[in-house]
Amino acid sequence: MQGILYEEPSFWQFLFVSVIMGGWTAWRTGKSVADGWQNYGTLVVYILLLGVGIRFIHHALFHGTMLSPQYYVVDTVVLLLFATLGFRYYRTRQMTNNYYWLYEKASPFSWKSK
């Protein structure tokens, strides 16, 4: 897996920076976009920028390559997964709390009409 998904000598570095730090930041970005009633396209733009920031952290802390399209895509896909989950979770809460007479939760990430 090293060389395909991450370039660090240890998986733990990738897990800490991309999944834990980046995932938490992406989740909070998804929450922020949902709270502002913005659309999913706005979230994607923010995550593309966050992917650059995560690549910089890999570069600054672990001497990774800053401008590597392969690792940028991997990091951004991981971030987009967390951001989408956060966005859907908070949008579901918004829809079911603000429009409780119209919608009810179908799952933590979706709602349905009553």
How would you sum up this structure, described in words?
There is one protein chain. By secondary structure, the protein is mostly helical. The protein has one domain (11-113). The protein has three helices and two strands. The protein has helices at 11-35, 40-62, 69-98; strands at residues 103-107, 110-113. A two-stranded antiparallel ribbon has the order 1-2. Strand 1 and strand 2 form a beta hairpin. The radius of gyration is 16 Å and the shape is elongated. The chain starts with 10 loop residues before the first helix and ends with a strand. 25% of the residues are buried. The mean pLDDT is 92.
Identify the overall geometry. Answer: elongated
Radius of gyration equals 16 Å
Number of helices: 3
Number of domains: 1
Strand order, sheet with most strands:
1-2
Briefly note the structural class of the backbone: mainly alpha
N- to C-terminal separation? Answer: 46 Å
Q: What portion of the residues fall into strands of 2 or more residues? A: 5-15%
Number of strands: 2
Sequence of secondary-structure elements: HHHEE
User: pLDDT average, as an integer?
Assistant: 92
